[in-house]
Amino acid sequence: MQWDDETLDWVYEKTDGYCRYCEKKLSRLNYASLGDRGAWEVDHSVPLALGGTDYLSNLWPACIECNRNKGTMMGPQYKRLFQAPRQSSSRGPGVLETLAGAFLLYLFLRALSQPKSD
Ligand SMILES: [Zn+2]
Fold first, then answer.
1. Ligand 1 centroid vs 56 CA: distance in angstroms?
2. Residue 68: inside a domain
3. In a domain, 67, yes or no
4. CA of 112 to the centre of ligand 1 (A)
5. Residues with CB in 5 Å of ion ligand 1
6. Are 43 and 70 in contact (CB under 8 A)?
7. What is the pLDDT of residue 8?
8. Structural domain tally of the chain?
């Protein structure tokens, strides 16, 4: 797909020149310039293969790596891959905390279910 400069400017400005997904800084001049610093492509948020359009509302700037990895995933679906690890490491409980919590719950329930001896 060939985009005219006006469209490329518009898409690039949509995120102030950052990859929509990994938020890497992109270089406007290195459009489709694979291997160059800040190289990027126009990403179809809804892939053409899934019925996406060439309307500006469906176009986002993405570094070439993200665009290629995304494949036929929906934009928001792919973006979650970048958000999920950050949330779970800062807020969510780790595996050990979860296991310890489950064990305490088990002890508590077992104590409740035991008949009183007196
Ligand atoms: Zn990226």
1. 19
2. yes
3. yes
4. 52
5. 19, 21-22, 24, 63, 66
6. yes
7. 98
8. 1
CATH number at residue 32: 1.10.30
- 91 CA to centre of ligand 1 in angstroms: 24
Domain of residue 54: give its range: 5-113
Decide if 28 is inside a domain: yes
Encoded tokens for 52: 């996406």
Q: In angstroms, what is the span from residue 90 Cα to ligand 1's centroid? A: 22
Query: DSSP character for 17?
Result: S
DSSP for 37-83?
TT-EEEEESS-GGGT--SSGGGEEEEEHHHHHHHTT--HHHHHHHHH
What global pTM score does this model have? 0.69
CA of 63 to the centre of ligand 1 (A): 4
pLDDT over 60 at 21, yes or no = yes
Indicate whether 118 belongs to any domain: no
Q: What is the pLDDT of residues 74-96, one digit of tens each?
A: 999 999 999 865 555 555 667 88
Give 39 Cα–ligand 1 centroid separation in angstroms: 10
